[in-house]
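Researcher: Let's do a round of design. I'm pasting the structure tokens now; please hold your answer until I've finished.
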């Protein structure tokens, strides 16, 4: 699904030189390399504050903790996402309220969002799934009407642009009150271990985010609030700062690969290619098709031909055992439930060759066009 070895081969000298500096300085936690990376990321995103942390799940938890939400407060999000989005809401004693997704973008349906707001609603967590942004202009309009916080789950769309009706353009994760991202190795901007970050333009929220991530201490052994311990180590900061210089190039490579897939699959009666929303660029963390047919059989048949694929995500969170007690039943989010049964993600990374793309796409068309007896 990803070729981290091929990517590393092109930047290994830069990374190893940076690692050597860290090893010689022994500044392994929150050292100069971390400060350099967070400033580089702030400049890239054009955001006032970036706080690095241990992983993307921590980033979401820290963001919600900084908002001083109270147990029982409702947080609206989607069910078609990685579990971290809902997990941190539940862990903090908040109530996740799941809404359906748009059938084209697979991101939060703004009409469903509007209908889900109650007097207990305090926050919205839109997810920028697969590398394309949710409709942040409408989401922010709704949030402002109801005086709600917005925390963007930007784990899959770092570097994506959001275009507003006034012509302005902002980076994904910088529109809401807080943005969160993951630097898991397979991400478009990935570390060589776990890592994450939180960003905001709000000075007071930035202060609280920093405190929460650092045991709640403003200075050593002085604790202003209850926090957690979530830090980025300097070796990972070197990797991320190096890769950040190439992020736009990585995105362009992914977009070229997606364009190849698009041409190969367009007008296919059993395949729906990713929709491009007019308000968002697509950085293709994943290239995800909708399959009109036996998706799971296709996945198995691809693997038999040496082609990996993934299902992001096979089960909607609102029907999972850990979240069923919130009262959801099958049929409550029909688009989410249908999409979970139809999506399949093909290999997508910066090192895909034309030969690989041709083999993958031709194999998909051959297999999906074959009788079910062949797929089985």
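Researcher: That's everything. Go ahead.
Model: Designed sequence:
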């Amino acid at each position: 699904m990803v070729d981290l070895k091929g990517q590393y081969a092109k930047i290994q000298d830069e990374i190893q030189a940076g690692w050597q500096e860290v090893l010689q300085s022994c500044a392994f936690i929150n050292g100069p390399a971390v400060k350099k990376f967070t400033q580089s990321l702030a400049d890239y995103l054009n955001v006032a504050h970036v706080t690095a942390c241990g992983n993307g799940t921590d980033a979401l938890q820290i963001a919600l903790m900084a908002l001083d939400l109270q147990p029982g407060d409702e947080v609206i999000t989607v069910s078609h996402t990685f579990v971290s989005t809902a997990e941190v809401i539940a862990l903090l004693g908040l109530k996740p309220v799941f809404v359906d997704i748009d059938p084209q973008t697979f991101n939060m349906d703004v009409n469903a969002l509007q209908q889900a707001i109650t007097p207990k609603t305090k926050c919205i967590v839109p997810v920028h799934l697969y590398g394309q942004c949710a409709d942040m202009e409408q989401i922010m309009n709704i949030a402002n009407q109801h005086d709600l916080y917005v925390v963007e789950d930007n784990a899959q769309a770092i570097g994506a642009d959001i275009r507003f009706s006034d012509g302005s353009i902002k980076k994904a994760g910088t529109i809401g009150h807080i943005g969160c991202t993951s630097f898991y190795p397979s991400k478009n901007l990935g570390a060589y271990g776990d890592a994450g970050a939180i960003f905001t333009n709000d000075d007071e929220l930035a202060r609280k985010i920093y405190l929460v991530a650092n045991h709640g201490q403003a200075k050593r052994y002085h604790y202003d609030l209850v926090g957690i311990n979530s830090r980025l180590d300097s070796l990972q900061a070197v990797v991320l700062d190096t890769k950040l210089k190439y992020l736009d190039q990585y995105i362009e490579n992914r977009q070229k690969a997606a364009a190849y897939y698009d041409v190969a699959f367009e007008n296919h009666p059993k395949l729906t290619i990713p929709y491009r929303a007019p308000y968002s660029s697509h950085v293709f963390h994943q290239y995800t098709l909708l399959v009109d047919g036996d998706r799971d059989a296709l996945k198995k048949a691809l693997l038999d031909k040496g082609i990996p694929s993934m299902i992001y995500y096979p089960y909607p969170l609102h029907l999972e055992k850990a979240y069923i007690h919130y009262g959801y039943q099958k049929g409550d989010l029909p688009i989410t439930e249908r999409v979970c049964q139809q999506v399949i993600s093909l290999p997508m990374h910066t090192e895909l060759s034309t030969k690989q793309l041709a083999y993958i796409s031709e194999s998909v068309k051959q297999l999906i066009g074959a009788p079910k007896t062949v797929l089985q």
